[in-house]
Structures are given as C-alpha cells and as structure tokens.
Write a structure and sequence with these properties.
Layout lengths: L5 H33 L3 H7 L7 H11 L2 H9 L1 H7 L1 H17 L3 H17 L4 H14 L6 H15 L4 H15 L6 H14 L5 H16 L4 H9 L1 H8 L1 H15 L5 H13 L6 H19 L4 H9 L1 H7 L6 H15 L16 H19 L1 H8 L4 H4 L1 H8 L4 H18 L7 H8 L4 H7 L3 H10 L16 H14 L3 H10 L9 H18 L3 H16 L4 H16 L4 H17 L2 H7 L1 H5 L7 H15 L3 E2 L3 H17 L3 H16 L3 E2 L7 H31 L5 H10 L15 H6 L5 H17 L34 E3 L8 H4 L10 E3 L6
Parallel strand pairs: 1-2
Antiparallel strand pairs: 3-4
C-alpha cells in the first residue's frame, strides 16, 4: 500500500476542510456579538465624558450629581485623597452630595463608602470632633441596611470610631439611642447591632456607669426571644467582664452565663461554654469547682449527642480548659476527662472503610470533615494535655494517643502534630526518647506539608533527641536513632523530587545542624556527597546556595583531614575549574560562605588563588560576580604575612582594568577598585579597630588547629594501643570530659607542622591536649544552629595570637589559570563544553 502523494493530500485537505473553516468563522462571529453589544454608543460616551479643566472637587461634585453609579462609586473611593488634599472644601461641597447619593446607593457604593469613611478616620485627616460632626450620623443612619454585608461593613467602621470618640459624644450619640434600639419592638438586625456596640462601649466607661446604664440592656438582650440575639450578646460578655471587674463579673455575668449554658439553642450553649472558658482566669477556685466545673462536665457529656460543630469547638478549647481547671479535678474526674480527650482523638477512625468517596452520601462526607477538624484540634492541644497528665505519665497515659495522631490517615491532623512535635519534645525532656519512632514516621511522611511543618524546629528536636533520654546512656545517642540517617536522606530526596523548592531549601538549611547529632563519617558518606550533587545538578538557585552553605558547615566540622582535602579538591576542580559557567558562579558563592564560616588563613591557603584566577574567566557574568566578591577576598589578607597574595590580587585587578572589554564588568571593576583602595588592611598584630573581628578569626583558626590535633592524637592513640579507637568510644570519652567551653589561657597553641618535628615527651601535656581536643568537638558546636553565623560563644575569651599557617600532611594544590590559554568564550559559557586547561601551583607556606 503506497502513501498518498503530497498533491493528493493537499487537495483532500482543502476540500474536506472548507466547510469546517466556515463553521469556525460562524462560531467566531457568535463569540464577537456580545463584545460588540458591550461597546458604548457615542451618546453614552458623551454622557460619561467630563471636562478636563474641572478641579478635583468640582469633578467630584459633578459626578455625584449627574454621573452614573460607577462614577459616583469612584468618587467615594477617592474621598480619602480629597480629604487629605482639601479637607475644608471636601466637607463643604462633596460630603453633602455623598450623603444624598448614599440614600439611593447600591451595595457596591455602600461598601465603598464604609471603607472610605474608615480610611479617613485612620488617616486623621480631620480632628475627632470634626469627624464626629460630619461622618458619625451618616454611619449610624446606614447601620440597619437591609443587606447584611453592608450593615456589617458600617458596623465595623462604627466600632473603630468608638475607640477614638470622647465619652460625652458616645453617651449622647450612641448609648442613649441604643436604649430604644435594643427593645424587643425593634428588628432582629437592630438588636444584633446593639449587642456588638454594647460589647465595645464597656471599654470606654467606668464600672459604675456600666452598671447603671449598660448592664440593664445586657440582661435584657441575654433574655431575648431570638436565639441569635442571645448568642450574640453571650459572646460579648467577655468584653463586658473585662470592663466591669471581678466582683461584678461574679455577681452579674456569671449567673447569666450559667443560665445561657442551659439554653435550648445549641449555638447559645456553645457561646456560653466558649465565654466561660475564656473567663476562667477571672474566677477563683471556688467558682471554678462549684459553678463552672459542673457546667463543663455536663457540656462534655452531652457533646456526642449534639451537633458535630459543638465537638469542633470543644476540642479546640480543650487545652485552655485543662489549664484553667488544673488542680480542681478529682482523680476520677481527671481520668474521665482524659478518656474523653482520647475518644476525641480517634473520632471517626472507627468508621473507616474501603468504599470509594463517590459512593459515600454527601452528609457522611460532611460529617467526616468535621471529625477531621476535631482530631486536628486534639493534635493542636496535645502539648497542653501532656501538662495535664504530667510528662512523667506520658508513656502510660498518652503515648498510644500520640502514636495515633502521628499515623492519622488525614494530612491536616499529621501536619498539626508535626507543628507541635517540638513542644512535645521540650515537655518530655528526659523522656524524649519515647517518641524517636514518631519522629522517623513524620520524616518519612508521604505529604511534604507534614515534612515542612516538622523541619521548622528540626535542629532543636534533634538536639533534644541526641542529648536527652534517661533510659539510654549518652554514648548510645546514635544507636537510639538507628533509622534517623535513612529517614533524613529519604526526606531530602522526596523534597528534591517535588516542585516545592522552598521546602527543599529549608530542609537543606536545617541539615546544617547534623554535626552536633551524628558522626563525621556519616555526614561525609551520606550527606556531604549529596550536597555536591545538588550544587552541580539542581536548577533552583536558592536550593543550590543552601546546599553550598550546608556543605561548608559539614566541611567546617569534619574531623578527618583526608576527607577535608578531598572536599576542597572537589570544590576547586569541579566548581572553580568546571566546564559550566554556572558551576563557576556557584564556586564564588561557596567562597563567600567559606569566608563567613572559616578563618582567614584557611581561605587564603586553599581558596584565595582559585578565586582570583576567575578574573580571567571568559564569561562576563563570572568576572562580574568575582568583582563584587573582591572586597571580601581582600579582607581575608593579613599584612605582612600575606603581602605576596595582596600583590597577586592587585595584579589581577590591574589586568581587569586594562583588558576588560565588557562595559558592564568594567564599570563594576572601577567601582570595586575605589572600594578596595578605601579598605584598611588587617595586620598580623591585633589592632584596636579590628579587635573584635581579629579575636573572632583567631578563635576560628584555633578550632581548625584543634581539629588537626584531635586527628593526630587519635592516630597516636591507635598506634599506642595497637587497636583502632571506635567512634562510640571516642564520643564517650569526649562527653565524659569536664573541660569548660572556654579554652584556658595556659594551654599553648601548637603549630601542627612544627609539633610533628619536635613532639612533646610529657605524657601530661599530651593527655591534656587529648582531653581538650575531645571536648572541643562537642563544645564548638554547643551554640544552636541558628547562631553559626556569629560564633558569639568565642568572643569573650582573651587569647594569644595563633599562627597563620594551616598545615596539612599533604599539600593541596591551588589552581592558576594563565592568560595565554586559548579559550572560546562562547563555548566556555555553555554547560556542555570541555573544561579549560589549568596550571597548578602550590602556595608556599608562611614562616
């Protein structure tokens, strides 16, 4: 079978599609018809046109008088601007027109006016007296608008106005008319508005005036025939109680609440219960035990037979209720209340089945949603329930409930318990080991929302997990969390595979706390290599930067010199000399983090030359980024020890000035040169102006030297004992040492290069070094992860100057790119090009 020829195909296409094209055109015509009808006619355009020579005030008056509704609404929306510009003319000419327009205005204009009046009040365009005289009557007039949304908008404006009006104005303009507005003869809407106004007025009058003028109205509205009014007034009793004081609250408000708690309307009973819970702090122990406790007990017993909305409110206020009634329950009541909470935590789970949601009736689905809200509220109140039962009884009383909440089938419940996990960990304190498995469960949760909620306090949680736990000795901190490392790596991979890069970024930032939790080898083999992969392959810049900074922190606290050198080599070769300009940009980001986290001597030894060699990079963006970094690079130099590095930096800058062809880069180079010239160099000796920075840098360098000493002493220990020192043994000895956080002044700082040539023969000195080195790894990271940037714990020490060299057993080469290399600028800017040739140079160590 032969395929049809192109000509036949074209002919067939044109013939068969002809009528299809006609139908498409007809459809387009139908679509266009409403558009054409919506266009304004010349007469309509003429009516909407306003003379451009009119002032703002005249235009507003004209549009409110003769314009259409949309134009009047626009004028009212612009009323705050007119008041700021010309308040006198606006009040005299525009505001009367606004009053007239509002009499017949629609919903949109009314809502706009309510917002504009509130804005004028907040802007303080006029005095309070002028505002009350000009605007208050307009607000009061429209409070009872037939549209509920409009009425509520004006009410919100009035409640804000009440805060600033003087007492006399409030009494004459609002309180006195309220007596008639609150009568049964008025509409329900009028009485509802009166309830909310009364709740607001109590904060403006003294207790005597409230008792004489406001409380009679309150009692009347609490006995209203409409349940809506009783419920609304009941919710205002909290504000009224705060205004009248404790004695009147006990004698007047409490009896009303008790009576409303027995009301036939469920919404009224719910309002009374919530108000009682919010007022628990006002009542004494006798009132709580004799009056409030029976009401709460009855409310809880009847809640399962009532509407689910009552259960939702009850579960939400449970924590506050437990706190307020703590110490009042008898043992039997305490146990019943705890069982009631446990029952709420599993509400709806017993009805789980395998049916499809489409087969479940809508009313059942709605009920299940309410049950989910109840369990979510129970998760929210779980820390309060731990206090209620005492953390010592957690395992017996609440662990099974906590397990159910962490394994709840619904994401909102697990999300809420993940948020509370840190609070739970703090409350358990030494018993935190009990919830190790639940931490792993939430880390492995299929929902990224749950993971995102958990990692907000992940460093603090892991710190508690690693240092707390009375049943396990501290040396078993790793064995007590056998699944932690796999769970953390799996969590990062799930975040990386999703589109939620912010969660991934946050997770990588929090992983910087791992050196205080797990061993250096675990970080090296399970996390550090992963940070490299993210830096090289991830397409999201914030994620790459987060991985870069965390990698630098891992490198900072790595205990093995060989591993540190391997990481440094990779950074230089795969990023600094990478074939992709994107990788070279990330190398400069990494250099910035290195300057921030490490000592100056460390950066100068390993990263100074590879960084400034990028001044010859063929990609303008790389050179531009380096120019921005050069002031920080120069700040790492110390004179006279680093004079030769300063000369190389100046030579690179001069080459940029002379040879740079890109105008944007050249402009930045010129600005950078001026900034570099203004910079003052740090000296080897301490200077008063740089004292704090120099001291901080010296402590960083001291820590880096201690890491080298620690590794050297470990090797000597292994050689002397004839067997390797295990990680657990080392951790045990490190923790058992009682060395203080601050390093003693008398301990000398040894130069690793010279100490290896002339080793100390004193066993006491070597033992002192070992104890100091063992304690360092724990103490250097004692500050929480959030304080890594500052290293504040080392600022108060008075120390001797440390040597500037950072010795190593093997010399790590620094890279240098010559200008004579033939490089194609276009190919070097691509991520698929070959790596450029590099000339390797080794930096001479300083004497």
């Amino acid at each position: 079978m032969h395929p049809p020829s192109p000509a036949a195909t074209a002919m067939d296409f044109s013939q068969n599609s002809l009528f299809g094209y006609m139908e498409d055109l007809q459809e387009l015509t139908i679509i266009e018809r409403p558009v054409r009808r919506s266009l304004k006619t010349p007469e309509e355009i003429e009516r909407l046109t306003v003379d451009e020579d009119l002032s703002d005030i005249e235009r507003a008056v004209y549009l409110l008088s003769a314009g259409q509704d949309i134009q009047g609404t626009s004028v009212i929306a612009n009323l705050p601007f007119l008041m700021r510009q010309n308040p006198a003319e606006t009040l005299r000419r525009v505001l009367p027109k606004v009053r007239e327009a509002l009499h017949v205005a629609g919903v949109e204009m009314q809502l706009t006016a309510a917002v504009s009046f509130l804005t004028i009040l907040q802007d303080e365009s006029v005095s309070v007296h002028t505002y009350a005289h000009s605007f208050l009557q307009v607000i009061l007039l429209h409070l009872e608008h037939r549209d509920a949304g409009v009425s509520n908008a004006w009410l919100e404006t009035l409640l804000s106005v009440i805060d600033v009006l003087p007492k006399d104005t409030l009494r004459h303009e609002i309180l006195n008319p309220l007596v008639s507005k609150a009568q049964l003869s008025q509409t329900v809407q009028s009485r509802l508005v009166s309830c909310k106004i009364l709740g607001k007025l109590t904060n403006k009058f003294d207790a005597l005036a409230i008792k004489r003028e406001i409380l009679p109205l309150v009692k009347s509205l609490c006995q209203d025939v409409e349940y809506e009014v009783r419920s609304c007034m009941c919710r205002q009793l909290e504000n009224i109680a705060q205004g009248i004081g404790t004695e009147l609250t006990k004698s007047v408000v409490l009896p009303e609440l008790i009576e409303l708690s027995r009301d036939e309307g469920s919404s009224v009973r719910l309002a009374a219960f919530e108000t009682l819970v919010n007022l628990l702090d006002i009542f004494d122990t006798d009132d709580r035990s004799q009056t409030i406790l029976p009401v709460v007990k009855s409310f809880c017993e009847k809640s399962f037979k009532a509407d689910e909305s009552i259960l939702i409110s009850l579960s939400f206020h449970l924590g506050k209720l437990c706190h307020g009634l703590y110490g009042i329950f008898t043992p039997d009541q305490h146990l019943r209340f705890l069982e009631f909470y446990k029952k709420l935590c599993t509400l709806g789970l017993q009805q789980e089945n395998g049916h499809n949601e489409n087969q479940i009736p809508p009313q059942i689905l709605e009920q299940e949603k309410k049950y989910i809200s109840v369990r979510k509220n129970c998760a929210y109140n779980f820390p309060a329930m731990i206090v209620f039962v005492d953390p010592k009884n957690f395992h017996m009383e609440l662990y099974s409930t906590f397990f159910c909440l962490c394994h709840d089938p619904e994401v909102p419940v697990r999300y809420t318990i993940a948020i509370c996990f840190y609070e739970v960990s703090k409350l358990l304190n030494s018993g935190v080991y009990l919830i190790h498995k639940e931490l792993i469960t939430l880390l492995q949760d299929e929902s990224l929302e749950v993971l995102d909620a958990l990692i907000d306090h992940l460093p603090e949680i892991l710190e508690l997990m690693s240092t707390g736990g009375e049943s396990s000795v501290q040396e078993n901190k790793l064995s007590s969390l056998p699944d932690l490392v796999p769970a953390l790596t799996a969590a990062e991979q799930r975040a990386a595979a999703s589109l939620k890069w912010r969660t991934h970024e946050k997770l990588l930032q929090k992983y910087a706390c791992l050196p205080q939790v797990i061993s250096s080898d675990q970080i090296y083999y399970r996390f550090l290599q992963r940070m490299f992969t993210i830096m090289m392959t991830n397409n999201v810049l914030p994620v790459q930067k987060a991985a870069s900074r965390t990698l630098c922190i891992f490198l900072r606290y790595n205990r093995k010199q060989e591993q540190r050198h391997e990481v440094i080599q990779k950074l230089i070769e795969q990023l600094g000399q990478g074939k992709s300009y994107w990788n070279r940009l990330r190398f400069l980001d990494t250099c910035e983090f290195i300057i921030e986290i490490f000592s100056k001597s460390f950066f100068c030894k390993y990263f100074f030359l590879p960084a400034i060699e990028l001044t010859h990079d063929p990609v303008a963006n790389v050179r531009m980024k380096l120019c921005y970094l050069l002031p920080k690079v120069k700040s790492t130099l110390k004179i006279p020890a680093d004079k030769h590095l300063l000369q190389q930096l100046e030579m690179c800058v001069r080459k940029l000035l002379c040879q740079e062809k890109d105008k944007d880069v050249l402009a930045i180079v010129k600005r950078t040169v001026l900034e570099l010239d203004r910079m003052e160099m740090s000296m080897d000796a301490f200077q008063k102006k740089f004292y704090e920075k120099d001291l901080l840098d010296q402590e960083k360098e001291r820590e880096e030297l201690l890491l080298l000493e620690m590794e050297q002493l470990e090797k000597e220990k292994q050689q002397n004992d004839g067997r390797p020192m295990s990680e657990k043994t080392f951790e045990k000895k490190r923790r058992d040492s009682k060395t203080p956080t601050s390093l003693p002044k008398s301990i000398p700082i040894s130069v690793p290069g010279s100490s290896s040539a002339t080793p100390s023969t004193s066993k006491e000195i070597k033992k002192s070094k070992l104890i100091r080195s063992q304690s360092f790894n724990n103490q250097a990271f004692h500050a929480k992860y959030g304080n890594l940037d500052k290293y504040d714990s080392f600022r108060t020490r008075n120390t001797n100057s440390a040597p500037s060299s950072f010795s190593s057993n093997t010399s790590l080469p620094s890279t240098s790119r010559g200008t004579g290399n033939s490089v194609d600028p276009k190919s070097s800017g691509s991520k698929d090009t070959q790596p450029r040739k590099a000339t390797l140079k080794s930096r001479k160590s300083n004497p």
